[in-house]
Design brief:
Blueprint: E1 2-3, E2 8-10, E3 13-16, E4 21-23, E5 27-28, H1 37-46, E6 51-55, E7 58-62, E8 68-73
Antiparallel strand pairs: 1-2, 2-5, 3-4, 6-7, 7-8
Length: 76
């Protein structure tokens, strides 16, 4: 679960293996925010994720072709 910059979303991790990651159906609230550019890009990207890598407190999410879609950094 998380927030895309505008709306809340949640969904299950369907499968997670050594470097593969599959999400189940993702549900989200449907508020219309002032600037939807970032939420729209995030939602499009998260639905294409199939692989992941962690390195130096960062999480990288990739599509089937190995293209980096999203990158997260752990912060306290």
């Amino acid at each position: 679960m998380g927030r895309d910059g505008c709306n809340n979303f949640n969904g299950p991790i369907k499968n997670i293996e050594e470097d593969e990651l599959t999400f189940g159906p993702i549900a989200a609230t449907m508020k219309m925010c002032f600037n939807m550019d970032i939420p729209d890009k995030f939602n499009k990207a998260i639905n294409k994720v199939s692989k992941f890598k962690t390195e130096n407190l960062k999480l990288f999410l990739f599509d089937n072709a190995g293209t980096e879609l999203l990158r997260f950094k752990k912060v306290d």
